[in-house]
Amino acid sequence: MSLISILHFAYGEMGGPVLESLIKDQRYEVVGIVTPPIDAELYRQADFLPQEQLAHDHKIDVFQTDKLSEVHELVTKLNPDLVLIASFNKVIPEPTLNLSKFINVHHGKLPRQRGRANINWAIINDEPSVSVSVHEAVAELDAGNILRQYHFTISPSSDVADMYSQINQTLSTEIPDLLNEYLGGRVSLHVQDHSRATFYCTRLPEDGMIEWAWPAARVKNLIRALRKPFPGAFTYLGDQKLTIWDAREPDDRRVFEGIVPGRVVGIQKGVGVEVLAGDGPILLTDVEGLGKCGDPSQLITTSKCTLGLTVQVLLERLNQRGI
């Protein structure tokens, strides 16, 4: 019996465990891995590249491209039985889709939550759960027929790395059998109701700047949604950037009737720093900046300061530049 040939699109935090399970599964042959080129912005944001290491270890060719013309040529040349997309930053056009069977692994509960950065957005928006939809790829964003959906609870303490770990563990077990059932015609497809479609927009590193006027819960959600391997939520102390890796509600949360968002209102040595959000204080417990990382009380030593880009700081920067 001949092996099922698969071309796999993946990079960063998505697709590594699934790729490993496909490599180990004796029903499949991974004929190549597609990742973005070295100079692609999305590629630079990925802190680790497990797919490339796996490819090297198993002598699988890696193709670095995000050009649709090159993807078309590659699929034509390799002629895989199936193309599995864990991550790719463009919608593949119909002529290329006609060359093989294309399956996309989308982190969202389709038909809602189409688009990018879905796990991050779900945590930021305080969603109770996140879903993964495995669907046929079509020449429209995340619009194909659904093979199967998997659902994962987001606990109040879960961060983005926790969710990816849960998802990858489940998918690495489920995907090989699901693909085999699909290719054998044993999967019932579910047509999406496109009238119910909603979208997440792309997130960029600069979108991680904390808006201290937000409620404390949303500030905390932003922080846990952008923990490593992502760039982190950040703020400023004067003109120095601070990356906030962890925060929580203070043990004894005081009620403030007068609030200046971003104002430091308490320093607990060895514990953290209390900062006012829009509805009260949040305790920062892990901060990186000024050449230090860890205890925020070593970085922020006075309550006579306000975090964030204040008008005064911006005016001083403009004055320094002679504007």
Describe the overall structure.
There is one protein chain. The chain is of the alpha/beta class and 323 residues long. It folds into 2 domains: 4-200, Formyl transferase, N-terminal domain (Rossmann fold, 3-Layer(aba) Sandwich); 205-320, Formyl transferase, C-terminal domain (Methionyl-tRNA Fmet Formyltransferase, Chain A, domain 2), CATH 3.10.25. The protein is 27% helix and 26% strand. The protein is built from 9 helices and 15 strands. It has helices spanning 16-24, 41-45, 50-57, 68-78, 94-97, 118-124, 160-183, 216-225, 311-320; strands at 4-9, 28-35, 62-64, 82-85, 101-106, 114-115, 129-136, 146-153, 199-200, 233-237, 240-248, 264-268, 272-277, 280-289, 292-294. It has a 7-stranded mixed β-sheet. Strands 10, 11, 12, 13, 14 and 15 form a 6-stranded antiparallel β-sheet that branches. A hairpin with a 2-residue loop joins strand 14 and strand 15 (292-294). Helix 1 (16-24) packs parallel to helix 7 (160-183).
Structural class assignment: alpha/beta
Helical segment tally? 9
What percentage of the residues does DSSP assign to strands (E)?
A: 25-35%
Low-confidence stretches: none
| Average residue-wise pLDDT | 92
Query: How many β-strands, per DSSP?
Result: 15
* Spatial strand order of the main sheet: 3-2-1-4-5-7-8
The figure for the number of domains is: 2
- Summarize the biggest pleated sheet: 7 strands, mixed
The oligomeric state of the chains shown is single chain
Could you please say which CATH topology of the largest domain applies here? Rossmann fold
Task: Find the CATH superfamily of the largest domain.
Answer: Formyl transferase, N-terminal domain
Radius of gyration, whole Å? 23 Å
Task: Please estimate the helix content.
Answer: 25-40%
Written as H for each helix and E for each strand, in order along the chain, the element string is EHEHHEHEHEEHEEHEHEEEEEEH
Global geometry: elongated
Q: Under the CATH scheme, which class of the largest domain? A: Alpha Beta
Distance between the termini: 72 Å
Going by CATH, the architecture of the largest domain would be 3-Layer(aba) Sandwich
